[in-house]
Design brief:
alpha/beta; five-stranded parallel β-sheet; binds 3'-deoxy-guanosine-5'-triphosphate; binds magnesium ion
Length: 311
């Protein structure tokens, strides 16, 4: 890249480089029946650090997109054999939203009204051929910036700020999908720290926060094939694959033991903490039914002696 004119500043260059670096490893697909067009666009996209794939017609492009969900950018021509650009965009949008795959429609000059139609069918932007390299660069970068921004916002919306775990909102959305599609393949565990109030009373709220962060790290590293979320103040949920309650109980027992043996650190002070666990199969009709079942088991664990697992 040549940075010229009045934009020739250090800050501009740094910003451009960091935007370009976000494209690194990002996959783009060019759907165009013209070999020359594909070659021109490939060269520019590679300069923008994309990994580039090519399709010669709409159908081939659709098959590639279905096979490769990692593709994040589609540049599609309008006039192509087997399936034109509009049909391709319509078909792709059935399964891939604007926040998941960016699409830029392309067509030759004199194609009046095509840009509006492309966008109506779900393209994020449009380019008229032949285009200036600078316009191509700007539109691709702007489209990718929007995609990245949406990904960042989603990440913020789905995560708990203190622990970095998924939050209750994400957990509930995910559980709704699980209960709708494969309710008999998962088990839910609710974990609640024992006498946490006493830790806050002794070490202050900030001290309590430190314990919560360390507890979350331990959960995340112990249940690495599960969805782990913070669903309340000192309450966590683990969605485990499989519906065998005794298997789930064994993993939770192992974790309960590891947790009880962990030294939590608040500055240079070491302390111990325990937790109680309630387990339920996800074979109920609604999320509140599953939660109620796990919560009842958790209540029994608290009633029993705490520091134990109940089904
Ligand atoms: P039990 O064994 O019955 O669960 O006792 P407990 O003291 O853990 O239960 P209780 O529900 O009475 O208290 C939970 C405490 O967790 C009270 C609340 O102040 C604290 N808490 C909730 N959210 C946070 C947080 O984000 N940070 C800190 N430090 N404390 C929190
Ligand atoms: Mg064409
Ligand atoms: Mg508690
Ligand atoms: Mg609680």
């Amino acid at each position: 890249y040549v940075i010229k004119d009045n934009r020739d500043s250090y800050l501009y260059a740094i910003k451009l480089v960091s935007r370009l670096l976000r494209n690194e490893g990002c996959q783009a697909l060019i759907a165009d029946d013209s070999m020359i067009s594909r070659a021109v666009m490939r060269q520019m996209l590679e300069k923008q650090l994309f990994t580039v794939f090519e399709a010669q017609d709409g159908e081939q492009a659709l098959n590639m997109l279905n096979a490769k969900p990692e593709i994040k950018l589609l540049l599609t021509d309008y006039a192509m054999p087997t399936m034109d650009g509009f049909e391709l965009v319509k078909a792709v949008r059935n399964s891939r939203g604007r926040d998941d795959l960016a699409i830029i429609g392309l067509s030759g000059a004199g194609s009046h009204g095509l840009s509006a139609k492309f966008i109506k069918y779900g393209a994020n932007d449009f380019l008229t051929k032949p285009f200036m390299n600078e316009e191509f660069h700007c539109r691709v970068m702007q489209t990718m910036d929007q995609l990245n921004l949406i990904a960042d916002i989603k990440e913020y919306a789905h995560r708990d700020f203190l622990t970095g775990l998924y939050n209750r909102r994400y957990f509930c959305q995910h559980m709704d999908k699980v209960l709708k599609n494969k309710p008999d393949q998962f088990t839910l565990a609710l974990l609640d720290l024992d006498h946490f109030k006493a830790i806050n009373d002794e070490y202050g709220h900030l001290g309590g926060d430190k314990v919560l962060s360390q507890a979350a790290e331990l959960l995340n590293s112990s249940f690495n094939h599960c969805l782990v979320a913070r669903v309340g103040g000192e309450e966590f949920a683990v969605l485990m694959p499989g519906n065998d309650l005794s298997v789930a109980k064994d993993s939770c027992q192992d974790f309960r033991e590891r947790f009880a043996n962990t030294q939590f650190m608040i500055q240079d002070q070491a302390l111990h903490c325990t937790l109680s666990v309630g387990i339920a199969r996800c074979d109920k009709a609604t999320l509140s039914d599953v939660m109620r079942a796990a919560d009842n088991a958790l209540y029994q664990a608290k009633e029993a002696q705490r520091n134990c697992v109940m089904v």
